[in-house]
Specification:
Elements lengths: L2 H8 L12 E3 L9 E4 L12 H6 L4 E4 L8 E3 L3 H12 L8 E6 L4 H14 L4 E4 L3 E4 L2 E4 L7 H13 L4 E5 L2 H5 L10 E4 L7 H4 L2 H9 L7 E5 L5 H5 L5 E6 L7 E9 L2 E7 L4 E6 L4 H16 L4 H10 L8 E2 L7 E5 L4 H14 L4 E5 L9 H12 L2 E4 L9 H9 L9 E3 L3 H11 L5 E5 L6 E4 L2 E4 L2 H11 L2
Parallel strand pairs: 1-2, 2-3, 3-4, 5-9, 5-10, 6-9, 10-11, 11-12, 12-13, 17-21, 18-19, 18-21, 19-20
Antiparallel strand pairs: 7-8, 13-14, 14-15, 16-17, 22-23
Helix pairs in contact: 1-3, 3-5, 4-10, 4-11, 10-11, 12-13, 13-14, 15-16
Length: about 475
């Protein structure tokens, strides 16, 4: 696409030669001949410092929000927003050819998106998926780098979905993505709010900022499906022009409610009730949070015009999501469960659920990520120790931090339950210790990693798949 065509779509000018644009990037390390380089001013690095270098390396033009005094600059008010809009134009606005459903919240985004895709698939609709576990386009699957991809990658996925015949796209929309304007210009036919608990305060600085970022999703949606049992629901419902639909497990002052809830190790059953419909729901993932996730997904589709009975039939066909309450195949008399729970609320939900379905002891292996919100570490330590019979505290993705320092932060929260705590910084050894303690009827919960098949250390990323680790430990004998 010619530079002039892109600029016409954006409504700005540039004095650069009207050359062919081959791609767009905000990563100075990826700059190459024929690209547009977008200068992002971040907390740690300002891309404007690389503007001149990008032009020397073959960039057609640079997008800036500071006047750099160069003819090849595209001066805009906000480079993050411009990056999204340029990417959309570059790929021919594929977002306008899809029915896009966004899901935001601290927990439940991944499961909700997989449920929506599964139900739509069962009804014969071709649906793309974008999220934490993976991105799915038709028969192709791509590893996910970010929960919500970089702008250029996001619109590239949209284009591929359109080209392979997808009518729908269901996607996780993170608070960082909203704050960084990665979905600028994307119109959501429907959006779901799952819940809001402490997470990402290292990025947002405060819970109020985190909440405000989540709210941005509903400012560009036709329909907002809101869990009113969450304390942040009233905030999410405020100052939006879209149609609001509410749901609850705890009260009837809503549009949809769940009645006669039954939770078992095989999943959940309940009756979904509205003024115009009532139907029996069966969903094969246990836990009260599964009631919320399946409700939000089902209500969203019904309110988008799907047949109520067909949606409930689709829910009954849903299988589990990788890394979410995932049972690891073993021949042991105890059960090994993997879950992505990496927030206080997520860990508490999983352990409360496990408590309900476990006859014996609950043995939890968990850690906290490095270079992330430190304030949640003692909170998660308290939760794990309080709700487990044994809590094995270990390393997660320490990144640049000292794993032992992270563990020390976690241990600060377990002083009331110190007798139930085991510390082992090596994650494989920690899993081995947990398995060695397990007996018939017990549940070993490996929390935090979920679908991840790696660990991020100070030295870089290494392969670490807990399914393989469990199999290896058991084959070696413990």
């Amino acid at each position: 696409m010619k530079l002039s065509a892109l600029l016409q779509d954006l409504g700005v000018a540039c004095g650069a030669q009207d050359r062919e644009v081959l791609f767009i990037t905000d990563n100075s390390a990826k700059v190459a001949e024929g690209c547009i380089f977008v200068c992002i001013e971040g907390k740690r690095f300002d891309g404007h410092t690389k503007a001149a270098e990008a032009l020397e390396n073959g960039a057609v033009a640079v997008v800036v929000q500071k006047d750099m005094g160069i003819k090849e600059q595209i001066l805009v008010e906000n480079t993050r927003a411009a990056y999204a809009r340029l990417s959309a134009a570059f790929f021919g606005h594929p977002e306008k050819k899809l029915r896009i459903i966004g899901v935001t919240g601290t927990n439940g985004k991944t499961t909700s998106c997989f449920i929506i895709k599964s139900v739509l698939d069962s009804m014969g609709y071709k649906t793309g998926l974008i999220g934490t576990v993976k991105n799915i386009v038709g028969d192709k699957e791509y590893p996910a780098v970010l929960t919500t991809p970089d702008c250029y990658d996001l619109f590239a996925l949209f284009k591929e979905m359109v080209e392979c015949g997808c009518e729908f796209c269901t996607m996780e929309v993170s608070s960082q993505a909203l704050d960084q304007r990665r979905v600028e210009g994307v119109h959501f036919e429907a959006s779901i709010f799952t819940n809001l608990t402490q997470d990402h305060l290292d990025y947002h600085g405060s819970f109020d900022n985190y909440k405000a970022a989540k709210h941005m999703l509903f400012e560009n949606s036709d329909l907002a499906v809101i869990n009113i049992d969450d304390e942040a629901a009233e905030y999410m419902l405020a100052d939006t022009s879209c149609r609001n639909v509410t749901f609850s497990v705890n009260n009837d002052n809503c549009d949809y409610s769940a009645k006669n809830i039954r939770i078992a190790s095989s999943g959940v059953k309940y009756e979904l009730v509205s003024n115009s419909n009532i139907g029996r729901v069966k969903f094969a993932v246990p836990g009260k949070f599964s009631v919320y996730n399946s409700m939000g997904a089902a209500i969203c589709l019904v309110e988008m015009g799907m047949d109520f009975r067909a949606v409930l039939d689709g829910l009954a066909q849903c299988v589990g999501v990788p890394g979410r309450m995932e049972v690891v195949p073993t021949e042991t008399p105890y059960t090994v469960l993997i879950d992505y729970a990496h927030t206080p609320d997520g860990l508490e939900n999983v352990l409360n659920c496990v408590r309900e379905i476990t006859e014996g002891k609950v043995i939890t292996v968990f850690g906290c990520g490095g270079d992330r919100d430190k304030t949640k570490r003692p909170i998660m330590g308290d939760i794990a120790a309080r709700l487990s019979d044994v809590a094995v505290i270990t390393s997660d993705n320490p990144r640049s931090e000292d794993p032992d320092a992270i563990i020390a932060d976690i241990v600060d929260g377990v002083k009331k339950h110190v007798s139930k705590v085991v510390v082992e910084s090596d994650r494989k050894k920690a899993i081995a210790k947990a398995l060695s303690m397990a007996r018939e009827g017990d549940m070993v919960v490996l929390a935090g990693k979920g679908q991840e098949t790696y660990q991020i250390l100070a030295s870089g990323k290494i392969h670490f798949d807990e399914r393989e680790v469990v199999a290896e430990i058991l084959s070696e004998g413990i």
